[in-house]
Every structure is written in structure tokens, then in C-alpha cells.
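task queued by scheduler; priority normal; single chain, no ligands, no partner chains; default sampling; output format set to C-alpha cells
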Amino acid sequence: MNHELRGMRHAKDDEIRPASCVFPPVSWRAQRGVTTMLVIAFMGIFLLIMGTITSYAFQQAKYGRALYGREQALTIAEAGLEYYRWFLAHNPNNLTNGTGQSGPYTYTVSDPEGGELGSAALSVAGNSQCGIIQSIDITSQGTSNTNLVFTRTLLARYMRQSVAAYSYLLNSNVWAGSDRAITGQYFSNGGIRMDGTNNSDVSSAKTTWVCNSSYGCSPTQSSAPGVVGSGSGSALWHSSAASIDFAGIATNLANLKTYAQTGGGLYFASSTGVVDSRGYHLIFKSNGTFDVRRVTSTTGIPSYNSQTGWTTGATEYSIIAGETLLGNYTIPSSCSLIFLEDRVWIEGVVKGKVTVVAATPSDTGTTIDVYLPNNITYAANDGTSGLTVMAERNVLIPLNVPDTMEIHGIFSAHSGRYGRNFYTNSSSYSSSQRVGSAWASYVLRSQLTTVGTVVSNARTGTSWICGSTTCSGFQTRIDAYDQLQATNPPPFTPSASTDYGFVLWREQ
């Protein structure tokens, strides 16, 4: 029996041991499957990350090449502009790149180390008035050989810098009073006493000058700096600036007369010999036309200015007493030039660009003045309207003007001055120097706002000080240059430089 039991135990043991060796536990097989899945998952994540990084790297490289191509296209476009500026310097007013054919013209930009960087396609257009080119617009489209897809286009305007870039451009000593608020460049070949406020450069060509009581310096400063005063913007004051040649920038008035007569402009002859004629009165209208009236009579009053002294005996005839209508005229679009060989009164609302010239170029014994008796504004202040007034001698604001006056335009007094004479009705002066009770209320005015440019050969002045008080003229004066006219002024506006260059540069 024991033998059977042992056999049975042996047999049972034999059955148990082989079973434990052949069939592994279920938990061990599950662990091996999880490990495999984790390896696959991590490899997938790794490949996904690596793919993303690789894709990002490729995209960044592609973006970098595109960015490089775009920037290179910009420099190539600029190279095209510079090329044509050089070409115009050697071939003035040649708009066809010397080919005689219409554009665009291709300018190839070479690599200094060999090969070509790309090319610029140039389109050139002249802006003409009365058959005379005023400015030249150059469009340059640059393309880089690195990337032909991305192009950059630049537009530049080639011309001499206009006086419209300045608020004031003067050729003599001047005093800007404490009531002045000036926006834009203020320049004089003489010394400047600046007591007003300024937000741009105030420059004098003088290193030193004599500033006396006439310019507010008491005691006299015999060696005052080129710009001196109590103004708040002294950080922008500059002495010893390069001078501006007024004779060199003065427009040839005889040529303008010819352009008006033969180029499609409007010409009005001298009224000398015409009965009861004192000159012309132009009244601009917002519809692009203007009335021309013949002034038949004027009222004389006494006045004073620092250049010629007193006009005693009622000899300043700036007040219109009578006039007759000659007609209504449309401003010519192809030659927006009005030339008058007589003195002129100008006012109204100007639509479009127009230049008015008052001069007698063939009569050296006569010099013509322009009077601004009323407000002058623009039909639109977006740069599409503009006025330039050129007087052979003075541009003057008469006695009987609005209490609050606003004038827009570029006003150039070629040989004389811009300003308002001194008027008084004070008993401190003789009866021959007083304007009389009928005009006494006009002696002192409240405010003058000038938007544009004043060019004056002689000393300017629209306010007069008696002691420490304004006793004649405008008590407050606001001056601002018109930025929109600086790069696109009315035709034949005087230039501030004899050198040509780019006055406008922008990407399209």
C-alpha cells in the first residue's frame, strides 16, 4: 500500500513539475505586451516630435530664404531708383532712359563678387505744367534672383526741394514775438530773435549779429548768437547754418509770363492807361473758377514799415473803394498759371493747384505788390488744392481785414517783404500819420493763422509793439507749413535749393 502511495505521489509530482515548466504565468505575458506597447508609443511620440521639429526647421529655412529674397528685392528696387537719379543728373528731363521708347526699363543689379543679384523694372513719368516738367516720378520694381516670387516696389519723386518745406524762409534779420506758434522749419540768412514757440528747426546763417531794441534786445547785444531769444524750443535752434541763395532760387518772372501767354495759362496785361484802373481783384471760388474784377478806385491811408518809413499824406492805396467785374474764369488744368502785369488783391476758396504771379518783367522801373484783403482757404485740405503767390515786390495784408484771419498758400515776396504795415489812430502821432476814426477799429486785429509758407527778401512783420503791448496788427499769430504742398506744390513754386534729389520716397 505504501508502495502504491509512493507511486501515486511520484506520479502526482511528475504531473505537477512538467506543467509548471511548459505553461508560463498569465501575469508575465501581460507585462511583456505592455512593454512592447510602451516602446511603440514612445517611438511614435519621438517620431512625431522629430517630424514637427524637422518640419519647423524646414519652414523656418524657407521663411528665411523668402525674407532674404524680399529684403534683397527692396535693395534692388532702391538701386534702380539711384540709377535713374544718376541718369537724370547727366540727362535732365530724359524720361525714356535714353531709348526714346516708352518703359518700363530694366536695370540689372550686379553682384560685386560676380554674377547678378536681380533686376529692377523702372517706370518714369513727368509731371508737367504749361509744357514744362515740374517733377519726375520714378517707380522701381525690384526682383531678386534668390526668389522670383517676392517683388518690392518703390516710388520716388525727383525735383528740387520746394520752399513749401519751410514755414518761413527769410533773407534778413527778424524778430518772432512771444505770441508766435510756429510749426515747420524756420530759416533766415540773417539773425533771428525767437521769443515764440517752435516744434522744428530754427536756423540762422549768422554766427553772430547785432540784436538791438528793434528786435527786442535791450540792451543791444553786439555779438548775439545767430538765434537768440526767450522761446521755449531752444534745443532746435541752430546758428551758422548754410546760407540759402535767394537770387539763385528766385523764379524767372519773364519766363513765367511767356508760359502764361503761350503755354495755356491766363495772362492779364497792365492796366496802365486804362481810365480809373488801379489793378485786379481775384476772388477764387470753390468750384474751380475765379472772378476777375478791375479795381476802379481805392482809399488812401498812412502807414509805416521799417524798410521805407512813413507813407504820410494817405499814400498807401490798399483799400478797395470801387470795382467792376471783368469775368469769371476756369483755372486751366494743363497750365494752372495766372500772370498779371499789375498789382493784385487775392482772396477766396481755391480748388485745385494754381500759381498767381504779379510782376512787370519788361518794366524795370515798376515793381508790383500783392494784397491779401480777406481769408484764403482751400476747397479740400487733402493736398489736391494749393496756391502759390509770387509778387515782384511785396506781399501785404491791408488794414481792413477780418479780426480773425486765415490764409492758406505759399507767398513769396521776391524783392520786398511779407507783412502788415503799422497803422495807428493814436493821438501820439500827427494827424497825417493817423488812419482816421472810420478805420480805427481795424488797427488792432485778434488772430492771424497762416497755413503754408512765407518767403520774404526783407524783414517780415504782422504785429507791432509799443512798449510792451501790441498796438497794431495781430495779437496772436499761428504759423504752420503745409506738409502736403512740400512734395507736390503748385506749378513753378520757387525752390529752396538748386540741387535736384528725391523729395518723396515710399513703398507701394
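post-processing summary
- The longest strand covers residues 147-162.
- The longest helix spans residues 26-90.
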